[in-house]
Amino acid sequence: MTRPATMTALEKSRPEPGLWRIEAPVPEIGPDDVLIRVRKTGICGTDVHIWNWDDWAAHTVPVPMITGHEFAGEIVEIGRDVTGLAVGQRCSGEGHLIGTDSRQSRAGRFHLDPGTRGIGVNVQGAFAEYLALPAFNVVPLPDDIPDEIGAILDPLGNAVHTALSFDLLGEDVLITGAGPIGIMAAAVCRHAGARHVVITDINPDRLALAAQVVPTARCVDAGREDLRDVIADLGLKQGFDVGLEMSGSQAALDQMVEALVMGGKIALLGIPPGVSPVDWSRIVFKAITIKGVYGREMFETWYKMIAMLQNGLDVSRVITHRFPAADFAKGFAAMASGRSGKVVLDWAA
Ligand SMILES: NC(=O)c1ccc[n+]([C@@H]2O[C@H](COP(=O)([O-])OP(=O)(O)OC[C@H]3O[C@@H](n4cnc5c(N)ncnc54)[C@H](O)[C@@H]3O)[C@@H](O)[C@H]2O)c1
Ligand SMILES: [Zn+2]
């Protein structure tokens, strides 16, 4: 292609709240990289932290930084040494950039590389017309997966990675937190053969969205309903076999521990703000297994989620708002309202 000299991008230009629409140089690519023409991007909670410039962002994100890490687009340029990819290939991609020297990477557990850097957080990101990405991180999109679903594969991948942490077939699952990721996890649990899927939140709008996206899940307002009543109502003998914590709330984790069976399993994705106290003795006496979950497995999570999407997993209704990229401020306002599911920006409009 004849590459333009500059592109539109959303940048954290100054260490204060906000993002700014700028003209930036189109990134150069190295021999192992591709250049992607971005079509759609998802706004993540992480992007909202960066917009707000909270303590985490101020300590983590160097300025200036083009933000964004959830994207779908099309390859428009390939580096000299790239094989197996071609110009014109539609793709999404893993936004965690890893090294190959660590013990974990050399064992093939790339998602555990301690040197991981995130696009849109530590290196220039995807809220732009063009994105340079290592070819290794590219995930080709089959024709039957549209761009807007491609743009939310990163958070769907969080949901899939967490949900598939433990055997789900015939199991009763409790999900705390009906944000976009919790809701998508509920859909994944259903697809993967769980018997009962219960999802909690304290925000009625989020519970209403969960009920729309996953009509077969039981949606519970944790502020009003007691999980013991739900357990009795469902006819569970002791409680839930598997818990997926997706709220970051200490109260939710406490409720989950109480609602689990002896020997139950918990996968923790939600990130509590700061230090939060845990009643460890309850966890020990219940012999509960806890697994922390970070990111997506490279690339088994991607493989599984694309296969599930092609086999009937439908998360499309979790996308509640769509805006042209120029209206990004409206997208961030929708996210801040707490009334949205996923918000997608269109870079081709
Ligand atoms: N570990 C990782 O790699 C990783 C990656 C992405 C996101 N996350 C975390 O995963 C979590 C889910 O992400 P998201 O984008 O869906 O977040 P979100 O903030 O949109 O959703 C969290 C939901 O939890 C609800 N909640 C709050 N207190 C609750 C309680 N006591 N009981 C039940 N629900 C409660 C909120 O109302 C909200 O709807 C967040 O904590 C996020 O930081 C972790
Ligand atoms: Zn994200």
Q: What would you note in describing this structure?
A:
The protein is of the alpha/beta class and 349 residues long. The protein folds into two domains: 6-152 and 315-346, Medium-chain alcohol dehydrogenases, catalytic domain (Quinone Oxidoreductase, Chain A, domain 1), CATH 3.90.180; 157-292, Rossmann fold. Helices cover 28% and strands 27% of the residues. The protein contains twelve helices and 18 strands. The strands form four sheets. Strands 3, 5, 6, 9, 10, 17 and 18 form a seven-stranded mixed β-sheet that branches. Strands 13-12-11-14-15-16 form a six-stranded parallel β-sheet, with helices on both faces. It has a three-stranded antiparallel β-sheet with strand order 2-1-4, with no helix packed on it. Helix 5 (153-163) packs across helix 11. The relative contact order is 0.14. Residues 44, 46, 69-70, 154-155 line the site of zinc ion.
Number of domains: 2
Oligomer: single chain
CATH superfamily of the largest domain: Medium-chain alcohol dehydrogenases, catalytic domain
Please report the total strand number as a whole number.
18
What CATH first level of the largest domain would be assigned?
Answer: Alpha Beta
CATH architecture label name of the largest domain: Alpha-Beta Complex
Average pLDDT, all residues: 97
Helical region count? Answer: 12
- Cα(first) to Cα(last) distance is 20 Å
Radius of gyration: 20 Å
Strand pairing plus helix content: what structural class? alpha/beta
User: Strand portion, in percent?
Assistant: 25-35%
CATH topology of the largest domain: Quinone Oxidoreductase, Chain A, domain 1
Q: Strand count, sense and closure of the main sheet?
A: 7 strands, mixed
